[in-house]
Amino acid sequence: MQQPYEPTGTAPTDPPHRPAEVAHVLVVEDDPTVAEVVCGYLGRSGYTVDRAEDGPTALARAAVNRPDLVVLDLMLPGMDGLEVCRRIRGREPVPVIMLTARGDEDDRILGLEVGADDYVTKPFSPRELMLRVRSVLRRTRPSAPGTEARPLHAAGLTVDPAARRAAKNGVELALTLREFDLLAFFLRHPGRAYSREDLMREVWGWDFGDLSTVTVHVRRLRGKVEDDPARPRLIQTVWGVGYRFDPAEREG
């Protein structure tokens, strides 16, 4: 039986955040207390909110009205959050933030492996969740005109930040939000080694967090851009440091 949910932290006293463009967020949570807290904070932050209590209902609502973001509980009756995430991500690249009451790192990593872009562990601070929501949605918006929006090319890879599209040898890649951001960052900074802390700060925009998140996303990205993911040549591991994108290895 689930324990009564008690969000950590206090309600914000600053004015509610109002998105420049109102985003539609689908909350999938069977615990009515958690759902009420999450939906309440999202609504006060200026988002339009839809709610589903189980996986089939979530899939049906997402099919009718495509959300800009899904906040998805891992533990759902009947169809668990992992399967819901797989099916949603199988349709189109909708960002997903997963909620989990489990403390097991394997569960969090599995959520990332099936396509979740981020996760928050219960009990959580609603303010923290709102920060994660804003961070994810900000990265889904087209880049402003300028250098950061220019298409990037290297080693048969093309990334168009403005259109949020990437391709390998002309074939479009199905990337999650974090995978896309990570690939774009690597193409902007070839030949330089970055630690996982560097990548979390520069790509995720976080000063702290679970570094295994970076490891999982690098592994997933390698599976999509490397000719042989078991022997990566583009995204190389720099032992004792982190990772380096080296397009010269493939071109050579």
From TrEMBL:
It holds the Pfam family Trans_reg_C. Keywords: DNA-binding, Phosphoprotein, Transcription, Transcription regulation. Residues 24-137 form the Response regulatory domain. This is Response regulator transcription factor. Residues 149-247 form the OmpR/PhoB-type domain. Residues 149-247 bind DNA. The keyword Transcription applies. It comes from the Bacteria. It comes from Streptomyces milbemycinicus. The modification 4-aspartylphosphate is found at D73. SMART domains: REC, Trans_reg_C.
